[in-house]
Amino acid sequence: MPDTPVTMANIREAHERIRASIHRTPILTSSSLDADSGGRLYFKCENFQRAGVFKARGAFNAVLSLTDAEASQGVVTSSSGNQAAALSLAARSRGIPAFIAMPKVALQSKVSAVRRYAGNIVWVEAVGNIPTSEEYDATAAGIRARTGASPVHPYNDTRTIAGQGTCALEFLGDQPDLDVLLVPVGGGGLLAGSAIAGKALKSSMRVIGCEPEMADDARQSLLAHRIIPQSDPRTIADGLRTSLGDLTFPLIARFADDIVTVSEAAIVRAMRLVWETLKVLIEPSSAVPMAAIAEGKVSLEGKCVGVVISGGNVDLDRLPWKPSESA
């Protein structure tokens, strides 16, 4: 892969750089979910990662890659929550400030996490309810101009992609017989890194991105062979509302095998199913691969299937089902 911006060597280097700063997250199984799916399912629980999300991998890789001079002015990113918390944690661990361009519609639980990790929030001014990529970028650029902070893009950054790829590196290291790897896709950093690592470690394994039907820019982009920007995402999976980047798109187009989409109802059902069956707390974005399994979007009969549970930062005061339904 010499002509790609991120290689397997970069992912291995990232893992060595961050391994003392992150958790090697566990893999869970469920015989009942196996029986329902027809395959053998293995869940890589990044909801147990530091900051409760896989993004800690890319955030720590980016922060620990900085020289002392670069780090001295801090780091800046734009995020609706998970990247914001992860970068704030990584920056605090190195003793430098983190500046976060964040939308006013961000979940309160994620705003609280950023503040808990001492991140400095700057609200994104947006024309619509949900900021566009351009509005996020403009706010982050303004912060950088005022502070001199080093930019760390939440997905369209080689350090971020390499860091996220360490999830699949660990997954296949612990479970090398995977036939299929299912990964949620928003901006594409996790899918791009996972696809690079997955194909390098086991070329026969299928790597499939999973996204909401109501935010299906990745599938549209692959079909059109160009980036189709996200225009009006209306999905409960708030972590998957972003568009692919000019770094993540070509990597996904080259290394991922497919993108499948799922309904909003299936996301909610899958989220609750995982809570009830695996007894772990996951957020809506994390439920999208399980929704793809439940809706039969991928053929799993007799296969060994890896499912990345990307995070567990859910707002417990705003669950997508009524309290009486969970009694």
Brief overview:
With 327 residues, this protein is an alpha/beta fold. The protein folds into two domains: 216 residues, Rossmann fold (3-Layer(aba) Sandwich), CATH 3.40.50.1100; 97 residues, Rossmann fold (3-Layer(aba) Sandwich), CATH 3.40.50.1100.
Architecture overview:
By secondary structure, the protein is α/β, with parallel strands linked by helices. It folds into two domains: 8-53 and 157-326, Rossmann fold, CATH 3.40.50.1100; 55-151, Rossmann fold, CATH 3.40.50. The protein contains 13 helices and ten strands. Strands 1-2-10-7-8-9 form a six-stranded mixed beta sheet, sandwiched between helices. Helix 9 (189-201) runs parallel beside helix 11. The longest helix is centred in the middle third of the chain and has 17 residues, at 158-174. The mean pLDDT is 94.
